[in-house]
Amino acid sequence: MLSLPGILGEIAEVAGLKAALQVARARGGTKAYFGERFARDGWLVEAVGQEAALIIGRHFATGHGGMELDVPMGPAAERTRIWREIRYRHADGQTRSQIALALGISGRSVQYHLNGHRPLADADFELATSDPAGYGAGTAGTSAELAAAAADNATAMAALVAENQALRQEVQRLNQIVGATRTAPIQEAA
């Protein structure tokens, strides 16, 4: 399971990973007020929904309402840090393998970043927080669900390849017809 810093870890424990990531997305890098009275409406409800907001609010409630807390950036900040570190190390002349070993990531990830790809925070966020059961588990799906999705994608890709081949054959056939009519002699009417 993803380990989150500071209060994000607490939020993940009480309201689920999805709620913690949504709080990081909404208020990461800033101070925010948490407490039961702040959980009835406002930014927290907009970020995580009423039920999760109440759970979070009760967790951080004090006898005087709530507390102002620093909200860490969350996983997106780590991806951005790694992306920058890859660029700096590459500019210093390190090889892909040296960078991968130093950062504890794969050489393919290093190459991906060096090819100009940046972290896709929104797409990663959606993948990490997809949870059909609600805000609880916050997983991207079981291995069986992921395998089924991969099989569906492979089937769709095979269908697209077959359709592409059929279209290419049709284009070739039409080009032959057009070419034959252009080179055929014009026959005079009798």
Structural features, described:
The chain has a two-stranded antiparallel ribbon. The chain has nine helices and two strands; from the N terminus they run H-H-E-H-H-E-H-H-H-H-H. The chain is elongated. It has 190 residues and is mainly α. 19% of the residues are buried. The N and C termini lie far apart (85 Å). Helix content is 64%, strand content 6%.
Helix content: 55-70%
Total number of β-strand segments? 2
Give unreliable regions as ranges. 120-129, 131-141
Mean pLDDT: 74
Structural class: mainly alpha
Characterize the main sheet. Answer: 2 strands, antiparallel
Helix count? 9
Strand order of the largest sheet: 1-2
Tell me the Rg in angstroms: 27 Å
Spell the H/E element sequence.
Answer: HHEHHEHHHHH
Strand content: 5-15%
- End-to-end separation in angstroms reads 85 Å
> How would you sum up the global shape?
elongated
Task: Describe what is shown at a glance.
The protein is mainly α. Helices cover 64% and strands 6% of the residues.
Characteristic terms for this protein:
mainly alpha, two-stranded antiparallel sheet, 9 helices
